Amino acid sequence: MRLGALEAGGTKMVCAIGNEKGEIFEQVSIPTQTPEITIPKLISYFEGKGIEALGIACFGPVDLNKKSDTYGYITSTTKLSWINCDMVGAFEKALGCPVGFDTDVNGSVLGEVTFGQAKGKDNVIYITIGTGIGAGIYVEGKLLHGMMHPEAGHVLIRRRDGDVYEGKCPYHKACLEGMAAGPAIEARWGKKAIELKDQKEVWDLEAYYIAQALANYIFTLSPEMIILGGGVMHQEQLFPMIRQYVKELLGDYIKTKQIEDLEHYIVPASLQDNQGIMGCLELARRVVV
Ligand code: ADP
Ligand code: ZN
Questions:
Q1: Alpha helices in 141-256 (DSSP H)
Q2: What is d(CA 91, CA 157) in angstroms, rounded to the nearest whole number?
Q3: Does the C-beta of 231 come closer than 6 Å to ligand 1?
Q4: Buried/exposed 216-227: b ≥16 CB within 10 Å, e otherwise
Q5: CA–CA gap between residue 196 and residue 112 (Å, rounded)
Q6: For residues 95 and 78, is the Cβ–Cβ distance under 8 A?
Q7: How does strand 133-139 pair with strand 124-129?
Q8: pLDDT digit of tens for each residue in the chain (289 aa)?
Q9: From atom 9 of ligand 1, which residue's Cα is the shortest distance away?
Q10: Ligand 1 contacts CB of residue 9 (under 6 A)
């Protein structure tokens, strides 16, 4: 089965051709400009490649409600030129094949449960901590959409005493994204996140905030595995610190074999940064009838 995959991000669009086994035959990256400039480039990449379907995992917010008139659209994004862009419609029309569509982070969690370390699990969360924070949530064997789709990067967290940084989220200021995404780290400490590598207090605070969100996800969604990806998580020293804070925050209340073994419960992504694009292949496979 020849399938197309498009991981649509705010800075770049990753396009690939692959198959239902998650094998990728070719891949390119195209910078995200305006829809008028970028969409035709994406279409010409996929044209003539003989794909049976295309899977798109897209930055958002997006409309995932199939009964809605604007299903498959990007809705109220901060990338203003992409507001009300009909992603599914544009590709269905141009390529004449079915299009699977979901959020970028749901694409990543789908990649991990279909092809990666979370294979066989029915309840998994994938969180990206990068320019923003988002979570793809797979519950009871399904991608969670609900009313719209989860926006779990914006959960509210408790400020640590002594942290005077006001928070960067334009909507909530000091939500998780506002306090812990890459741009918040850089604004709080006045340096590029990567240059702060050796400053222990930076990562200690970061781990504290991330762990609060994870504890809340554990309490509400009861995941069997939590996968952390995105640029900020390249700071691998965060993992043991996050696990320690999660343990403290759960306070011995949740007693499962997973929580006793946090090293295999809170883990880095397993597919060499291909979890998103591989998830798109699965989104495509699922719309082939
Ligand atoms: P995006 O979220 O735009 O898709 P990334 O996941 O790469 O892209 O996230 C970019 C953010 O992650 C930036 O704010 C950057 O400072 C931060 N970042 C990227 N690489 C690292 C690193 N090695 N260590 C810490 N922070 C990083
Ligand atoms: Zn917010």
A1: 176-180, 182-189, 200-221, 238-250
A2: 39
A3: yes
A4: bbbeebebebbb
A5: 30
A6: no
A7: antiparallel
A8: 999 999 999 999 999 999 999 999 999 999 999 999 999 999 999 999 999 999 999 999 999 999 999 999 999 988 899 999 999 999 999 999 999 999 999 999 999 999 999 999 999 999 999 999 999 999 999 999 999 999 999 999 999 999 999 999 999 999 999 999 999 999 999 999 999 999 999 999 999 999 999 999 999 999 999 999 999 999 999 999 999 999 999 999 999 999 999 999 999 999 999 999 999 999 999 999 7
A9: 130
A10: yes
Q: Whose CA is nearest to atom 8 of ligand 1?
A: 130
* Residue labelled with tokens 């990256």: 29
Instruction: Spell out the residues 6+ positions from residue 284 whose beta carbon is closer than 8 angstroms to its own.
Output: 3, 4, 5, 51, 52, 53, 54, 55, 99, 100
State pTM to two decimals: 0.97
